[in-house]
């Protein structure tokens, strides 16, 4: 009975979660064996029958045996092998003729394979790059048997380390061989010409001349050679070529090629470059603090995911708008566009199995999956307009359908501005004085700013001079010498009573931290190595009415393990006003960390109600410059004044 009741409660909880969710679970296959990224997923009506299929550029388990798969519903419709790992997949219209069925473009290695009706249609290969002349000369010498394979390997390794032009694939394969395999490889390939071929790293589509959904589009390719290529959709010729400072890994475009367009490329150097039409080089640059893991354009905002587990929003000119922190690492990103409601949001797949949907920095929805998400794709699948395709790290496939009644709202309430934004502020009326002052600031703004800057620099200069003078004159309660790390605290009080008040010093003196020791064990006492520290200041607390005061000095050795010996304490004072029976005495051995109280008496001799300063100096035997100093502003002796 208990087991039955627990199973009933679990089923009821699952039903309630499904009822409150915005998604319908259409399909889940943990053994689908699909290993891909978001850039290798595409949804399109490949046959023109209104049935949208899912195109997958599958990397294969462990990156072995890549294949092109086309899914219809949960089943694989067709499957064909690929010569290299896929980099991106995209669907686009090549021409305006009927029937207007989209073509499929799959970037793999140095080629773009174009399919129409799931049949091979065209193969575009990237143009070859000029080989390294030194590498070409070495292979020519090997062809004429003027150098042996071992010498060829040593010289190719030197070229690879120093040359700006990278080696060809043939040379790179040769450097990976064992010594016994080199001679056979050279005999087989020495008669072949050296070819240096780059590969495609990313791909997207750009509308040609119309912004319609069914308009003709161009292919935009990013290559390992730090270039962007725009291809003609019919002749597959290069329409435009742009250079980047680094290798592009993510692309986002907007606009039309024949009118005006913007292109954003996230690169391996951690920057996002923005290009415009007729620009051969980037116009704007967004410097990120970490490597990008995704790039999505939401309306006019570029959303970038970084390896620091955060999403960043930027304008097309590189201005940062917002930042959202994620609970886990971001593995993939893609766009969610619900055309029926005019909603665009960004989806982020996390390493903890969550899919988070954000509109700007507002969280709209969280989807939890049984494994880490590796790819996301949202769009029309089959005959459902709003379908979410998710693949997991273990090769699983998840298909979810957005409910027709689902409405995305922010986690904190309804989408829109905060209610406080609609409140009218009670702005006071402008007075005549305010208007005159505003006009004066407009006319003399430059002169006022220069005057302010001059006064500010003078203030900083005087503060720095006073600080240096205090260090050089030892006018500070903490020693700046690393060999004698001391701290001083002075208290003056009357022995008979404990009724007193607190006095401030003549000027505040910052406490300082000692310089770290060097590797050789010697201490450094440069001014730039001392930093201010909070909580340490010399104070003099006077208790009593006079004329006799008890002066207590608290001396502390702030060293970690080294005791201090051979210190002296000296008092400088006006002998007409004060008398000290012990104006000079020795300090005992100071153990690190302990506070030693040193006491003496001060007697006020004046009956005129005046007071003066008593200077306390801590010295080392044989040295004239003090290690520490303190100025005690003595109070008026109220006993003599009353008499």
Description:
With 643 residues, the protein is α+β, with helices and mostly antiparallel strands. Among the domains are: 133-190, no CATH class; 291-407, Methylamine Dehydrogenase, Chain H, CATH 2.130.10.10; 473-495 and 543-642, Immunoglobulin-like, CATH 2.60.40.10. A hairpin with a 3-residue loop joins strand 11 (217-223) and strand 12. Part of BBSome complex, that contains BBS1, BBS2, BBS4, BBS5, BBS7, BBS8/TTC8, BBS9 and BBIP10. Interacts with the C-terminus of RAB3IP. Interacts with CCDC28B and ALDOB. Interacts with PKD1. Residues 538-638 form the Bardet-Biedl syndrome 1 protein GAE domain. One of its GO terms (biological process) is visual perception.
- Please tally the helical runs, counting DSSP H or I stretches of 4 or more residues: 8
**What amount of the residues lies in strands?**
35-45%
Q: Which residues sit in consecutive blocks of at least 5 with pLDDT less than 50?
A: 1-16, 494-540
CATH architecture call of the domain at 473-495 and 543-642: Sandwich
The total strand number stands at 38
The end-to-end distance, rounded to whole angstroms, is 99 Å
Q: Describe the strand arrangement of the main beta sheet, using strand numbers.
A: 30-31-29-32-36-34
Proportion in helices: 10-25%
Alpha-carbon Rg, integer: 39 Å
- The chain-level structural class is alpha+beta
CATH topology title of the domain at 473-495 and 543-642: Immunoglobulin-like
| Main sheet: strands, sense, barrel | 6 strands, mixed
Domain Bardet-Biedl syndrome 1 protein GAE: 538-638
GO molecular function: patched binding; smoothened binding
Protein name: BBSome complex member BBS1
Domain Bardet-Biedl syndrome 1 N-terminal: 23-276
């Amino acid at each position: 009975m208990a087991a039955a009741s627990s199973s009933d409660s679990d089923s009821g909880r699952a039903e309630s979660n499904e009822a409150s969710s915005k998604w319908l679970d259409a399909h889940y296959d943990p053994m689908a064996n699909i290993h891909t990224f978001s850039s290798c997923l595409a949804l399109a009506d490949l046959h023109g029958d209104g049935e949208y299929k899912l195109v997958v550029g599958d990397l294969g388990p462990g990156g072995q045996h890549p294949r092109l798969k086309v899914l219809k519903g949960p089943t694989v419709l067709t499957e064909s092998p690929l010569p290299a790992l896929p980099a991106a997949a995209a669907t686009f219209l090549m021409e305006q003729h009927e029937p207007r069925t989209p073509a499929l473009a799959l970037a793999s290695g140095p080629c773009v394979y174009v399919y129409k009706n799931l049949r091979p249609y065209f193969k575009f290969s990237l143009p070859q790059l000029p080989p390294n002349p030194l590498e070409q000369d070495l292979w020519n010498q090997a062809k004429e048997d003027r150098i042996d394979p071992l010498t060829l390997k040593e010289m190719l390794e030197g070229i690879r380390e120093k040359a700006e032009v990278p080696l060809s694939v043939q040379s790179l394969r040769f450097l990976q061989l064992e010594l016994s395999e080199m001679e056979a490889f050279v005999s087989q390939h020495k008669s072949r010409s050296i070819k240096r071929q780059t590969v495609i790293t990313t791909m997207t589509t750009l509308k040609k001349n119309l912004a319609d959904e069914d308009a003709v589009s161009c292919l935009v390719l990013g290559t390992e050679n730090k270039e962007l290529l725009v291809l003609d959709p019919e002749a597959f010729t290069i329409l435009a070529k742009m250079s980047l400072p680094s290798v592009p890994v993510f692309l986002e475009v907007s606009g039309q090629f024949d009118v005006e367009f913007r292109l954003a490329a996230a690169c391996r150097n951690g920057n996002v470059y923005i290009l415009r039409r007729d620009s051969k080089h980037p116009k704007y640059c967004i410097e990120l603090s970490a490597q990008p893991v995704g790039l999505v354009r939401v309306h006019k905002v570029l959303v970038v995911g970084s390896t620091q587990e955060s999403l960043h929003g930027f304008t097309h000119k590189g201005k940062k708008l917002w930042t959202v922190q994620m609970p886990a690492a971001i593995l993939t990103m893609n766009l969610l566009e619900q055309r029926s409601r005019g909603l665009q949001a960004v989806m982020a797949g996390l390493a903890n199995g969550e899919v988070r949907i954000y509109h700007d920095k507002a969280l709209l929805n969280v989807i939890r999956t049984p494994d880490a998400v590796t790819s996301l794709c949202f769009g029309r699948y089959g005959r459902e307009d709003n379908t979410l395709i998710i693949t997991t790290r273990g090769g699983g496939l998840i298909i979810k359908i957005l409910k027709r009644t689902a409405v995305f709202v922010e986690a904190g309430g309804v989408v829109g501005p905060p209610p406080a934004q609609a409140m009218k502020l009670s702005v006071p009326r402008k007075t005549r004085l305010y208007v005159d002052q505003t006009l004066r600031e407009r006319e003399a703004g430059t002169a006022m700013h220069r005057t302010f800057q001059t006064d500010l620099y003078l203030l900083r200069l005087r503060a720095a001079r006073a600080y240096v003078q205090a260090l050089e004159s030892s006018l500070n309660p903490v020693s700046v010498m690393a060999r004698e790390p001391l701290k001083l605290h002075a208290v003056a009080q009357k022995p008979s009573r404990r009724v007193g008040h607190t006095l401030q010093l003549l000027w505040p003196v910052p406490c300082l931290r000692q310089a770290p020791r060097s590797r050789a064990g010697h201490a450094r006492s440069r001014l730039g190595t001392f930093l201010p520290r909070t909580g340490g200041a010399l104070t003099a607390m006077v208790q009593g009415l006079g004329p006799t005061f008890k002066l207590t000095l608290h001396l502390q050795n702030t060293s970690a393990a080294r005791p201090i010996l051979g210190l002296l304490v000296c008092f400088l004072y006006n002998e007409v006003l004060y008398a000290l029976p012990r104006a000079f005495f020795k300090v005992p051995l100071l153990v690190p960390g302990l506070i030693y109280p040193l006491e003496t008496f001060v007697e006020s001799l004046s009956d005129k109600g005046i007071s003066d300063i008593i200077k306390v100096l801590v010295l080392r035997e044989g040295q004239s410059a003090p290690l520490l100093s303190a100025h005690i502003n003595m109070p008026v002796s109220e006993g003599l004044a009353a008499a």
